[in-house]
Amino acid sequence: xxxxxxxxxxxxxxxxxxxxxxxxxxxxxxxxxxxxxxxxxxxxxxxxxxxxxxxxxxxxxxxxxxxxxxxxxxxxxxxxxxxxxxxxxxxxxxxxxxxxxxxxxxxxxxxxxxxxxxxxxxxxxxxxxxxxxxxxxxxxxxxxxxxxxxxxxxxxxxxxxxxxxxxxxxxxxxxxxxxxxxxxxxxxxxxxxxxxxxxxxxxxxxxxxxxxxxxxxxxxxxxxxxxxxxxxxxxxxxxxxxxxxxxxxxxxxxxxxxxxxxxxxxxxxxxxxxxxxxxxxxxxxxxxxxxxxxxxxxxxxxx
Length: 303
What we know:
By secondary structure, the protein is α+β, with helices and mostly antiparallel strands. It contains 9 helices and 9 strands. It has helices spanning 8-19, 40-43, 65-79, 85-100, 106-116, 118-124, 128-159, 178-185, 281-301, and strands at residues 29-32, 61-64, 164-167, 192-198, 209-216, 220-229, 232-234, 249-250, 255-260. α3 (65-79) packs antiparallel against α4, α7 (128-159) crosses α8 (178-185) and α7 runs parallel beside α9 (281-301). The longest helix is centred in the middle third of the chain and has 32 residues, at 128-159. The protein is globular and about 70 Å long.
């Protein structure tokens, strides 16, 4: 899945209106991991166009991998013979899907629960339930705190760059804060950003390019270069391939470049890319250094 693009749903609706006239009935679905609403940028008319307005809530339907798609796949598996290739493919797809949305099959969950001995311990020690509930909340808070410390460490390093100036995000771009970090800790993947104005730019086409550090469902944890004028996200210059040598970099008409930091998955706590590794200074520094190296590469080109 990918992050919303400017006027994305607006454009989709226009295509449907043009190509799916009567007697056909068109439906516009917005599919995300958790069924969240599209961003205002996505449902608003394009910037600098003659059209204005915003899509009405009833003109599209939010659906999720967690509910509609998972339910649909589960129903399909009941109707397809178990020995068939199609059943095998659907099973694999559902396993991948459940991993993405943080769900597990009943069989996998029951097996892990039985192996843990937790049910037996709670049955014998009812007082442990309260302690367990508090511990569960503390794990969420630990996850969020580690994300917060990482972003603040990166922020301190970025504002020490002579050519970067920290600024408030434009309207409709929520700033990274505790609510964002706790949302990721609980698997909801809300969007949040930090914006930095690049100073000392001589090229007129690049004077409105900002360095952005972001977390969102589309690209997880990333750093990129976007162009903003008067608080509006505008298209970048045509020469968008200037960072083709940067590993993992991609671009489109709204972003000059962006890179997902593969070394960290903000929704995971454990594992090689989990947030838990940020407890150690060495591993946190490795992530910070990756971001700062990308920042240096970007600033070298934006002149």
